[in-house]
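Supplementary notes for students who missed Thursday's class. We covered one full example, reproduced here. Read the sequence, then the structure, then the short commentary at the end.
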Amino acid sequence: MNNKTKLWLPIIFAATLITGIFIGNFFAQRARISVATSDNAYSKIHALLQLIDYEYVDEVNLDTIVENVLPEILAKLDPHSVYIPQSDLQMVNDELESSFSGIGVQFNILNDTVLIVAVISGGPSEKLGIQPGDRIVTVNDTSFVGKDITNEKVLKKLRGPKNTTVKVGIKRTTAKDLLTYNIVRGDVPVNSIDASYVIEPRVGYIRVSKFGSGTYKEFLTSIASLKNDGAHDFIVDLRGNSGGYLDAAIRMINEFLHKRQLIVYTEGKSYRRANSFADGNGSCRNSKIIVLIDEWSASASEIFAGAIQDNDRGLIIGRRSFGKGLVQQQIAFNDGSAVRLTVARYYTPAGRCIQKPYKKSDADEYGMDILNRYLHGEIDTQDSIQIKDTLEYKTSLGRTVYGGGGIMPDIFVPRDTSGITNYYNKVANAGYLFEFAFKYADENRERLKTMKSWEQLLAQLQQEDILWSFAEYAERKGVKRNPYSLQISGKVIVNALHAHIVRNMLGNEAFYAVLNKTDKTIERALEEMRKMAKP
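Structure (token representation):
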């Protein structure tokens, strides 16, 4: 190094340092000026993030801050506007699609183990011979059991892009060694019609669990099949149905209404009123219809019930529905995340918005509404129903209906508390009914699978002493046997066990067929349907 270089080095270092300080101060000053001169919300948020980026004492990840703040902003709007991170979007969307890519099984987690409850017909697992009752204990040669196993973790492991492979290790009661399967993921249908069968002569029963992209097609198939089996009138069960796609509900309602009857209309600040009318081509315009709802029936379910009620087309039976009258639109961001933003309200044909009241600053209170209904006795007695800001409206025939807090049924049916004891609550809440039913079906699978219909299987189960076997099982689990409670709750327990065993052997439709035999709301619906059928 020569003398000239030695002379200039300190000067260069000093200049570099001064320049760096100047640049840093320049941008920091710009950030401060930006904050000070921000005159609207957009520029203020941008300036704040810029200030944090330049001047905050520690390094921070602005992406993480934004991810955490977005849900908080949306929560200040209404209870149903939500942010969906990129990591969750696919799973959220799959719930309402007609299919997704996976291995094709229904599962439950029991005793920290993934139990295959059903194998979906035509799916990848069925083609490889995987059976109900199998237990998944390894995934990709790694142990997959334990207390940290959750439904979300199972879905993330088993679902994936089509034509990719997942290796599962399965424990089967009839095999000594671990069975290994390399499953190529494929399209798995997502069904939203849980049950569809002739419940009594001329009456078809259809249970709809959600309104997805394939629901209307499933619904038409069910209607056609039921008509072929002799059904002319229909009970549509929307209890527990939290909604889904508005279009699916509109198309299903269209099957029952006459031409130009209003189905629903939507309206919002940036969305002009949009009416949906029946086109007069529905296949069930002359069929009688009864719709079943409860406190968990929401959104599209309420559109369906409201359209039938306001047009005086049929009866609504059950309990007051959830009360969701806000319409969300999903808007995607460039990073693969999305926001579901409330853009309008929907109104039933009589003009009522059935959205229940909410405070923008108190999401917890909104979430407690259903619990409060139970505490106030609304689920048990019609006189206890409390609706804030109730408004009266008139149906097409002049009947009075109400808005401002869900769909009020034409006929109220309280929850059935007969047979409910502390003993029943203990075993039901602990999951022992499901556990025992699965164990019973698993141990007797070879014998029970010879029964090809739910009627035949139920008749067989009714000859077996299941109640006392269950009581012994529950006692081993820590719930002491109580002869008095068993006498009161015995019928309820046995019916639940029968239904779960039948489900494990024959699927969902058989499960609901057995449950419906002792369902008070179903009984009332059938009673009213018989009255409607009389000349």
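Commentary. The chain has 19 helices and 21 strands. The radius of gyration is 29 Å. If anything here is unclear, bring it to office hours.
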